[in-house]
Amino acid sequence: xxILEHFSAARDVLSVPPGVVLFAEGDPGALMYILVEGEAExxxxxxxxxxxAPPAFLxxxxxxxxxVRSATVTSRxxxxxxxxxxxxxxxxxxxxxxxxxxxxxxxxxxLRATNDKLMQAIGEVSVRGRRPR
Length: 133
What we know:
Blueprint: H1 3-6, E1 13-16, E2 21-23, E3 31-37, E4 40-44, E5 47-52, E6 56-58, E7 72-75, E8 79-85, H2 86-95, H3 97-127
Antiparallel strand pairs: 1-8, 2-7, 3-6, 3-8, 4-5, 4-7
């Protein structure tokens, strides 16, 4: 599914300048964003873990799980975004299973990247002669 093409007719495009925090780690979330232009930094615990570029889903976990935001997202450049609320998200998932798969693919990619970083950290601890318990 071509996400940018799918949303090309969207009228409510949000434009933000560089340096805007779209949402912060620990905040409650009710919206996700689709990044259609620009770059955004995704940070966890103050460390940038991903540089998002179009098409990217930002904050999708908020529409699946009621927990607080797990990351902070900040526009790195001027960005154009589409906001998607729970109602729209549910409709998109029902009408387009491809959309649901794209969201899941994004989440899987981020989980795999986190696993890789965790394994590197465990390896570094192990090399220093201490193994985590």
